[in-house]
Amino acid sequence: MKFVSFITGLLSLAALSSAAPGYGQGGGHDAEAAASKQIDRLQKQYQKYIRDTIKTRQTGCTSKNILRRREWGSLSKADRRSYIDAVYCLYHNQSFVTPLSEIPGVRNRYDDFVGGHLQLTPFVHADGLFLPFHRFYVHLYETALRTECGYRGAQPYWDWTLSYTDPAQSTVFDGSPWSLGSNGVFVPGRSPITVAGAGFTRTFPPATGGGCVYSGPFTPDKFQLHLGPIAFEPAGPQGGLGYNPRCLSRDLSPDFASGGTRPTNVTRLLACEDLACVNVRFDDPVGGVHGYGHFLVGGIQLDVFASPSDPVFWLHHAQIDRLWTIWQNLGRPEEQRTQQVWGTQTAANTPPSDNVTLDTLVPFGRLSPSKPVRELVSTVDGPFCYIYE
Ligand SMILES: *[C@@H]1O[C@H](CO)[C@@H](O)[C@H](O)[C@H]1NC(C)=O
Ligand SMILES: *[C@@H]1O[C@H](CO)[C@@H](O)[C@H](O)[C@H]1NC(C)=O
Ligand SMILES: *[C@@H]1O[C@H](CO)[C@@H](O)[C@H](O)[C@H]1NC(C)=O
Ligand SMILES: [Cu+2]
């Protein structure tokens, strides 16, 4: 599987070197190819450590029941379709749990997940709850796909380093029935979008799309967004909580992709010695690989509140979680990094909040009872049992 991804990576690098002579700022062709190999090596080291851990520790997570989270492009077409079908199933389930008195725009089970994120955004971004919150949040979604919608697989991830020169080349965005749709249709003459998110403000120039996604599984006739936006104008009704049906739009940006989702951006993060450094390299206010993964997609991905409205969100956050767990398992002893906490409990510590400890309760709104950070740090203990392949 990784071999295929690696070859895809090399091919995109090869395509790039002939097509875009000026790309090499701060890490050329060789540096990126070497970084891709390094990530593969570190992932293998992580996998070996996880396999050893589940053999020696009796957590109920075993090589038999462990979920294998794979890169989208390495799944068979049939497996990609069964994932997409499960997303449709959540979308078509009209018995949601969110009270309309809380979020009037919710219409289906998929919206429950968007709504939970929308309510919790100021507490779980640009702070010490970011990583543990999103780990369990993705797990809740994966669990709903499996237990409510008959999906047999694991949550896939999107390794954006494989197409950092041109995200439209990714199997995630190729517009086929086995993708998550395409770029948005190109809309000329657009103005930049100013986003005031959790802990940052930034203006985004128009990129290569901007309109609705018209190919693949999430076209306007099959899938609509209902909530938001909140972080940019014009906001949806009732402050973005009201019913605001519209198409999924995207605005793929090769500039953001090559600006922050390169293999070298990842190796720099994995080289961190502590969780403070890891968090900064994920979530730096002016960038970080987490932000860039959202920015390069555009559309609702620019709205930190309602970003889970685009189904690609879950694959991006699985990739973020993958990098965190690889980093956690590279240190020795493993517990030392896995048990590390960092930061406070509000975005950019505004308003000021307490430091996160292993006992801090992470909120999940209507999606789940709160969980202590302690239960969310290991991917093979507590509620979790999965490995990234
Ligand atoms: C619909 O969602 C509810 C939660 O609100 C869940 O309990 C139920 O299993 C789902 N039903 C289907 C058919 O997916
Ligand atoms: C990603 O890496 C490139 C090349 O090394 C560098 O110029 C850029 O600043 C990095 N991006 C971020 C967001 O750190
Ligand atoms: C929170 O952590 C910071 C940085 O480690 C430290 O300087 C500060 O004293 C801590 N605050 C409390 C209330 O423990
Ligand atoms: Cu989020």
Measure the end-to-end span.
8 Å
Bound molecules: 2-acetamido-2-deoxy-beta-D-glucopyranose, copper (II) ion
- Would you give the CATH topology? di-copper center containing domain from catechol oxidase
**CATH top level class name:** Mainly Alpha
Characterize the main sheet: 2 strands, parallel
Q: Give the overall form.
A: globular
Number of domains: 1
Average pLDDT taken over every residue: 92
Secondary structure class reads: mainly alpha
Give start-end ranges of low-pLDDT stretches.
Answer: 1-25
Q: Provide the succession of SSEs.
A: HHEHHHEEHHHHHHEEE
CATH superfamily: Di-copper center containing domain from catechol oxidase
Helix amount: 25-40%
Number of β-strand runs: 6
Please tell me the CATH architecture by its name: Orthogonal Bundle
Count of runs of 4 or more consecutive helical residues: 11
The Rg value, from CA coordinates, equals: 20 Å
Strand content: under 5%
Strand order of the largest sheet: 1-6
Question: What are the salient characteristics of this protein?
Answer:
single chain; mainly alpha; di-copper center containing domain from catechol oxidase; 5% strand; disordered N terminus; binds 2-acetamido-2-deoxy-beta-D-glucopyranose; metal-binding; Tyrosinase/Hemocyanin; oxidoreductase
Task: Give a structural overview.
- The longest helix has 28 residues, at 29-56.
- This protein has one domain (7-16, 24-388): di-copper center containing domain from catechol oxidase (Orthogonal Bundle), CATH 1.10.1280.10.
- The model is unreliable at 1-25 (pLDDT under 50).
- By secondary structure, it is mostly helical.
- It is globular and about 55 Å long.
- It contains eleven helices and six strands.
- Copper (II) ion is lined by residues 117, 125, 134.
- Residues 125-142, 310-321 form the Tyrosinase copper-binding domain.
- GO terms for molecular function: metal ion binding; oxidoreductase activity.
- InterPro entries: Di-copper_centre_dom_sf (IPR008922), Tyrosinase/Hemocyanin (IPR050316), Tyrosinase_Cu-bd (IPR002227).
